[in-house]
Predict the 3D structure of the following.
Amino acid sequence: MSAESGIRTFRDNNGLWEDHEVMDVASPEGWARDRGLVNRFYNARRAQLDEVEPNAGHGALADLESHFDVRIITQNVDDLHERAGSTQVLHLHGELRKVRSTANPALVYPWKGDLTDDDRCAEGALMRPHIVWFGESVPALEEAVGLIAEASVVLVVGTSMQVYPAASLVGYAPRDAAVFYVDPAPQLNHELARLPQLRVIEDTAARALPKLKADLLEQGKAPNHF
């Protein structure tokens, strides 16, 4: 979803994320092994947000809020949906512009600058990036399932459909829901393949979503949740 804004995908074809081994910067083990490396990595990702802008795909979804009840469930940790104007965004895997206590996950703080190895929460515990790493539970998953289960139209945009449990969410869509899968290199997993009303759009978010927005408005389809 954010690749066309200049943010590299979570895991490129070489298995790296911004030239780092994924498990070194996105796992509890990586954090325990080298907290400084992990903090520097997310500090750089956070700073990058000031250099990028939402693309036409983000804008199309935000525009739909003027007509329908649109809910966005995203695996992305950037804030481009919000900056485009979307007001109901559920981040499954956390947010770059937030940090949280290592002792009390309920203590979450907005954060714009660098996080140092010594920054502590109000209770005195070290703070860490507010990111869901491999091996950790996804706190927002139950809410996401509820949103999908109520949807009349579901858009699945810019994902390999290989990262679980997020990739399983579309399986909770009602049988009569229209489902659109937008990706320049679509990969159908089991959940997508079983959907009777699936339409695959082999294109990028920035090109496809403005066209799809126009189609939905013309057809009068009311997408409850995205």
User: Anything to note?
Assistant: The radius of gyration is 18 Å. The first strand starts at residue 16 and ends at 17.
